[in-house]
């Protein structure tokens, strides 16, 4: 081939636009992990500079860790649901009612193991209640969640009353160390293996990518949805246990508003709430830390809570918009 013909072919080939280049970067295999971590690092450095280093004090860092622990557990749990392209933002209220069940059981038995078991079972049972309504009535989880939020919130108000239900302080603080860290690490590792190394995770992501195609290949979407809600229920129940032993009491407003925190943590962690191949189980944990860093940093800078909610809303909409399109490249083996 002559140099002239080579130049002619090069001139005829279309040039990549800025949008095309951005799409290529977004579809890189490690982008969903690298971008959230880079964003978290930027926020930490920014707030550290703006607060004159106070943001990096030990007490602040410990508070960020404790606050992000509960949201991170729930966000890890709902990754199984979000990967199918469904959304359930009632998980905060589910966690709250599970906490109430556990605290009431403790009032009767004064046993921490009983409280933990009842909270776990309550989280699974309530999530399965949502799942049953979705399957039996053929309703999207988001629609069921709207009704569930009102019902579970009302039950919390009725069961708790005006005064919070107390749990033994010393017993709770004893569980904040090894028990909390050990159970979370175990749960996270199990989720990580099942989601990224077994057929369960591949099927859930396949359903989120193209449900019609998944059905045609023989995947039982009903069974997959039940599995997703069971794992979500375990995580929400665990988050309820962590919430109770951290606060040593359960009020009627427990869990209110946490559903939005979980959704924001999910998208900040680099996972698309529309499911599919971009889904991953570790996004919620990274996003939960990012959300807490953002909230804490803005509060330390004197920003009002109302403005913080506005900033969070804008960031959420922006990230949803950036993740709203289906990827244009063919799926790779690693993605499924």
Could you characterize what this model shows?
The protein has helices at 3-12, 18-26, 31-50, 58-82, 91-109, 112-137, 141-160, 169-175, 178-197, 199-209, 211-216, 221-247, 258-268, 283-300, 305-322, and strands spanning 165-166, 249-250. The chain has one domain: ABC transporter involved in vitamin B12 uptake, BtuC (Orthogonal Bundle), CATH 1.10.3470. The chain contains 15 helices and two strands. A two-stranded antiparallel sheet has the order 1-2. The protein is globular and about 70 Å long.
Key terms for this structure?
single chain, 336 residues, mainly alpha, ABC transporter involved in vitamin B12 uptake, BtuC, two-stranded antiparallel ribbon, 74% helix, disordered C terminus
Tell me the layout of helices and strands.
Layout: H1 3-12, H2 18-26, H3 31-50, H4 58-82, H5 91-109, H6 112-137, H7 141-160, E1 165-166, H8 169-175, H9 178-197, H10 199-209, H11 211-216, H12 221-247, E2 249-250, H13 258-268, H14 283-300, H15 305-322
Helix pairs in contact: 3-14, 4-9, 4-12, 4-13, 4-14, 5-6, 5-7, 5-12, 6-7, 6-12, 8-12, 9-10, 9-12, 10-12, 13-14, 13-15
**Terminus-to-terminus distance:** 41 Å
Largest sheet: 2 strands, antiparallel
Tally of contiguous helical segments: 15
Estimated share of beta-strand residues: under 5%
* Strand elements, count: 2
Indicate the CATH topology: ABC transporter involved in vitamin B12 uptake, BtuC
Provide the structure class: mainly alpha
CATH class: Mainly Alpha
Low-confidence runs: 326-336
List the domain count as a whole number: 1
Major sheet: order of its strands? 1-2
CATH hierarchy: architecture: Orthogonal Bundle
Helix content: over 70%
């Amino acid at each position: 081939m002559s140099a002239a013909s080579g130049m002619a072919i090069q001139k005829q080939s279309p040039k990549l636009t800025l949008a095309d280049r951005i799409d290529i970067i977004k579809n890189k295999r490690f982008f969903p992990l690298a971008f959230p971590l880079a964003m978290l690092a930027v926020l930490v450095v920014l707030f550290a500079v703006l607060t004159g280093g106070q943001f990096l004090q030990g007490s602040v860092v410990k508070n960020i860790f404790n606050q992000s622990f509960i949201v991170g557990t729930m966000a890890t749990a709902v990754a199984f649901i979000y990967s199918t392209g469904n959304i359930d933002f009632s998980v905060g209220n589910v966690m709250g009612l599970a906490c109430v069940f556990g605290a009431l059981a403790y009032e009767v038995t004064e046993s921490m193991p009983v409280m933990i078991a009842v909270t776990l079972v309550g989280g699974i049972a309530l999530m399965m209640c949502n799942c049953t309504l979705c399957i039996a009535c053929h309703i999207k989880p988001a629609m069921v969640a709207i009704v569930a939020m009102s019902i579970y919130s009302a039950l919390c108000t009725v069961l708790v009353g005006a005064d919070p239900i107390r749990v033994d302080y010393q017993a709770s603080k004893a569980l904040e160390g090894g028990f909390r860290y050990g159970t979370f690490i175990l749960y996270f590792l199990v989720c990580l293996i099942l989601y990224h190394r077994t057929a369960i995770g591949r099927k859930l992501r396949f359903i989120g990518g193209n449900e019609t195609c998944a059905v045609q290949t023989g995947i039982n979407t009903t069974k997959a949805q039940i599995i997703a809600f069971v794992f979500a229920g375990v995580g929400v129940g665990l988050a309820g246990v962590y919430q109770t032993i951290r606060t040593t009491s359960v009020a009627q407003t427990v869990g209110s508003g946490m559903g939005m925190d979980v959704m924001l943590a999910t998208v900040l962690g680099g996972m698309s709430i529309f499911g599919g191949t971009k889904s991953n189980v570790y996004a919620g944990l990274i996003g939960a830390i990012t959300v807490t860093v953002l909230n804490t940093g803005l509060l330390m800078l004197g920003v009002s809570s109302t403005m913080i909610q506005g900033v969070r809303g804008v960031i959420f909409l922006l990230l949803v918009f950036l993740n709203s399109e289906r990827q244009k490249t063919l799926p790779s083996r690693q993605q499924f």
